[in-house]
Give the backbone structure.
Amino acid sequence: MGNGLLQSIADNVIFVLVCVVIAAALFMVAYAAEKYVYKRDGVTERILSTRKIAMIGLFSALAVILHVLDFPVPFAPPFYKLDFSEIPALLGAFAFGPVAGVMIEFCKILLKLLFKGTSTAFVGDLANFVIGCSLILPASIIYMFRKTRKRAVISCVAGTLIITVFGTAFNALYLLPAFSRLYGMPLEAILAMGTEINGSITGIVSFVCFCVAPLNLLKGFAASLVSMLVYKPLSPILKNAHVTVGKRAKQAQ
């Protein structure tokens, strides 16, 4: 019993460290890309200025509202849920850069844990953050290098493909085994839940292909479509709000 407790503690510590490393890596990638573009274009503004932080807070609040309004899908077990919280994150990333997008995703998860807690031993929360960033980060980086409508379409298509492929592989290689260990549910029992829904599921590969891939594809497509439809009309409002917040911050100094 003592060995089991120690093993459980070790598994949780390792999982927390993995979460920290992944989050730090995502921030570093976003920061490096944005710093490069700032240097190329001669932009002197700080990447995380006061005005950006204020807008990140606003978009994070919108994202967490959409996140807690998640719902199950008929083609996957009930612990897989669909939400549209990537829409504010993608809009924020297009407007304010990749760092803002990653921070919106990160703050969304922190707020969700604060108000709702976790029902998946934090594995689902890590999954939502990392997989959400796999859409937000590539899409916003591609768009940042050349902000045209054509580039926005390309960035959304690329982001949707990446979230589908990466999210599926990440579930198979790490998240599902981690969920099994931390939640105390045998992996075979998790796969059996998928088999009950779809008889074609016979192992972890078919599980992620029939359950996880469609979920991530749907999430990426929905976030991209809505963002493409509303970003252009919202762009002047976002820019005005961005400038207004900056002026107020300077006046307060």
